[in-house]
Design brief:
alpha+beta, about 220 residues, 12 strands
Length: about 220
């Protein structure tokens, strides 16, 4: 994946820096750029009509964002991209990227492969939500976070990135009150525990069994 991403830095673009909580783009805005994340963390979110937030990805170094409308006649962004921390992205204008994809077939093939990986990630997330409901969505989110940011310590996995309960609820497509109850149940069952503002997973096998984890590998089963 990294080697495929690196090819896009050969395409002329510009660097954009973002402060924490600054939007890179908002849903409904005219789409002009294809972005590569150079540093930091950027939430990809969707707002519902009743004001709830659904977090789809946490894009980090090596992620691409803003790619979906690349060949639309009137491209608009269908998601929001907001920096969780100070971040830096490499921005390539769509027409410039188009010309390079036409001249360099290997670059186009790399983009197709990246799109394919993204589709598999989203399908697996929807599988967990549809088949196993709110608990499945939370358990899946915790597993994906462990694959992206987990550190093995004390016989368990420490998710080494701070997330609020509201942010976890946004990933799990559920209300914060429901998420709080589910987290409390997991703590009482000694499946997880809090270590400061981080989550420590004591029994990840339980989470995997509950959603009949397909062991699709960290390339697919991650939060990015």
């Amino acid at each position: 994946m990294d080697s495929m991403i690196r090819q896009f830095y050969e395409v002329p673009g510009r660097i954009i820096t973002l402060k924490s909580d600054e939007f890179l783009f908002r849903e409904g805005e005219f789409a002009k750029y294809f972005y590569l994340v150079r540093s930091g963390q950027i939430f990809i979110t969707k707002y519902t009509s009743n004001g709830r937030v659904l977090s789809l990805r946490l894009a980090t170094r090596g992620s691409i964002i803003g790619e979906l409308p690349i060949y639309e006649e009137n491209p608009i962004y269908i998601f929001n991209a907001v920096a969780q921390s100070e971040s830096e992205v490499y921005a390539i204008e769509f027409p410039i990227l188009h010309s390079y994809l036409e001249k360099k077939p290997l670059l186009a093939v790399s983009l197709l492969k990246i799109f394919g990986i993204h589709m598999r990630k989203q399908h697996s997330k929807f599988r967990d939500l549809i088949l196993y409901g709110k608990k499945g969505a939370l358990y899946s989110t915790l597993i994906r976070l462990s694959n992206s940011y987990g550190k093995e310590v004390d016989g368990g996995i420490l998710i080494n990135v701070p997330l609020t309960n509201q942010e976890l609820a946004n990933y799990s497509a559920t209300a914060r009150e429901s998420l709080n109850r589910m987290l409390s149940e997991l703590r009482r069952a000694e499946i997880i525990e809090n270590r400061g503002n981080l989550i420590f997973i004591k029994n990840i096998d339980y989470l995997r069994q509950e959603i009949e984890c397909e062991n699709c590998g960290k390339e697919i089963c991650n939060i990015e």
